[in-house]
Amino acid sequence: MSDDNDIRHGRHCFFMMHVQLVFVTKYRREVFTKNILDDLRSIFTSVCADFEAERVEFNREDDHVHLRVNYPPKVAVSALVNSLKGVSSRMIRKKNYPSLRKKLWGSALWSPSYSAGRCGGAPIEIIRHIEQQQTPH
How far apart are CA 40 and CA 107, in angstroms? Predict the structure, then answer.
């Protein structure tokens, strides 16, 4: 999918579902370096692919990341989040980055909470098509 406005399809449905996710580091510590963020980007892309989802955007600060993910209707957002946070935490902690060792202890990278919000809406062409439908009498 080269254009994030493409409508995807499954065997029995058409869909374009996006979710905006925000993950915050444990204790809101500013631990991210360029190397960690580069690793996170590739980890998130890989996990999304396992769910037949697509990481569309990845933005970051020193203590949190924003993701926009295009996902199929068969995927529960909570399951996707669980995997994104769990896999990334394990893989990043395994690399033993000095900024993490100094500011975080234990095995957690992320705060247990997250933010998930619906993104966008139907393209105007689809809305116009729906508005033009005739109600049967």
Answer: 16
Query: pLDDT tens digits for 69-90?
Result: 999 999 999 999 999 999 999 9
DSSP for 24-82, written as a single string: EEGGG-----HHHHHHHHHHHHHHHHHTT-EEEEEEE-SSEEEEEEE--TTS-HHHHHH
Strand partners, 68: 20, 57
> What was the pLDDT predicted at 126?
61
Radius of gyration of the chain (CA): 18
pLDDT digits (tens, 9 = 90+) for 109-132: 999 999 999 876 666 666 565 566
The tokens for 99 are 């900024």
Q: What angle do CA 15, 53, 40 make, to 5 degrees?
A: 145
